[in-house]
Design goal:
The protein is of the alpha/beta class. It contains 8 helices and 9 strands. The strands form 2 sheets. It has a 6-stranded mixed beta sheet with strand order 5-6-7-3-8-9, with helices on both faces. It has a 3-stranded antiparallel beta sheet with strand order 2-1-4, with helices on one face. It is globular, with a radius of gyration of 18 Å.
């Protein structure tokens, strides 16, 4: 299976007037083609730092990061511009990268039609639900044709019921577009339900404490909602919960 993103003994420290803060310590993992990895760990441990390094928004202190393909980053908030309608928000990345040509505009329109935004293309963000805004943000990211999607707690601002619906929605889009993804989350159930692999991080300076390959028995095509009903779900939940609650003793 093709490797799209690999971290090899990656460490990251920040330096300020008060001294050195070590955030990541020798992090190693590989994201393969058509794979979703969920990264979970305590607040402030460095989960978002991993995404910033993967996207080259920041540079590692040591170690090596190998990439084979383009990276798309979907942040925690949708960051839609209120004065731009849905279509114009989705086109924004193409405008910035100066790649808004006929072919790419046709691709944008295909995404809008395919994922139920055709009737909303002239709407403004304040006219959309939270779930719909997240869909717009995802399609804006897909418009740049990334091979790898990075999602930084993209559902945390939504209420529980909406989060379940949007997670199913986003999962289907990722799979339909045949993208690989790394999703940072603080929600154990969310991590298990969406991922092929869950990486559990320690407190700062964080190391990888455990990697779980998620194998679920599901009746029908997998969705995050159906995944929660599998007989193996509770076993994985208990394993991750145990690791997360062992941090106080670290």
């Amino acid at each position: 299976m093709k490797s799209l993103l690999t971290f090899e003994d990656v460490s990251k420290s920040f330096f300020t007037e008060t001294g050195k803060t070590e955030v990541l310590s020798k992090i190693s993992f590989t994201l393969h083609e058509d794979e979703i990895i969920a990264v979970i760990g305590p607040s402030g441990c460095g989960k978002s730092t991993i995404l910033n390094l993967a996207s080259s928004l920041d540079l590692q202190t040591s170690g090596e990061i190998k990439k084979d393909g383009n990276i798309g980053y979907m942040f925690q908030r949708d960051n839609l511009f209120m004065w731009r309608n849905v279509l114009d928000n989705i086109k924004l990345g193409l405008e910035i990268s100066k790649t808004l040509n006929k072919d790419n505009l046709n691709y944008v329109n295909d995404l809008i039609n395919k994922y139920g935004l055709k009737d909303f293309s002239k709407y403004y963000p304040n006219e959309l639900s939270g779930g719909m805004r997240q869909r717009v943000a995802l399609i804006r990211t897909l418009a740049l044709k990334p091979d790898v999607l990075l999602l930084d707690e993209p559902f945390s601002a939504l209420d529980y019921q909406t989060r379940l619906f949007v997670l199913d929605d986003v999962y289907k889009i990722i799979k339909s577009e045949k993208k690989s993804a790394i999703i940072v989350t603080h929600d154990i159930s969310e991590a298990i339900s969406v991922a092929d692999k869950v990486i559990v991080l320690s407190n700062r300076p964080c190391i990888i404490k455990k990697v779980l390959n998620i194998k679920l028995t599901i009746d029908g095509e997998r969705t995050p909602t159906l995944a929660r009903k599998s007989k193996e779900f509770q076993k994985y939940f208990d394993l991750i919960y145990k690791e997360l609650n062992s941090y106080e003793a670290d």
